[in-house]
Amino acid sequence: MICPRCDSEKVNLLTKSPVGGAWEVYICETCCFSWRSTEDDDIKDPNKYDKRFKIDKDKISELDQIPPIPALLEEKN
What we know:
The chain has one helix spanning 41-44; strands at 11-16, 24-28, 34-36. It is built from one helix and three strands. It has a domain at 11-57. A hairpin with a 5-residue loop joins strand 2 and strand 3. The chain is flat. By secondary structure, it is mainly beta. The protein starts with 10 loop residues before the first strand and ends in a 33-residue tail after the last helix. It has a three-stranded antiparallel beta sheet with strand order 1-2-3, with no helix packed on it. 9% of the residues are buried.
């Protein structure tokens, strides 16, 4: 299987539906994109995925990082 967003072949089955065979969720180890087996082809098919949202897997390490979540403030009583 190939990731629709970055074209990586490092895709794993994340989970399956509690009702056998209803759906599966996959996740890409490279770009962390996830999708259900029941998605339309424009989401799950790499050839039909919107090219505006494609990611070059070789440039992922150069992307900005998500800012860290600050520590919680202590409650004042």
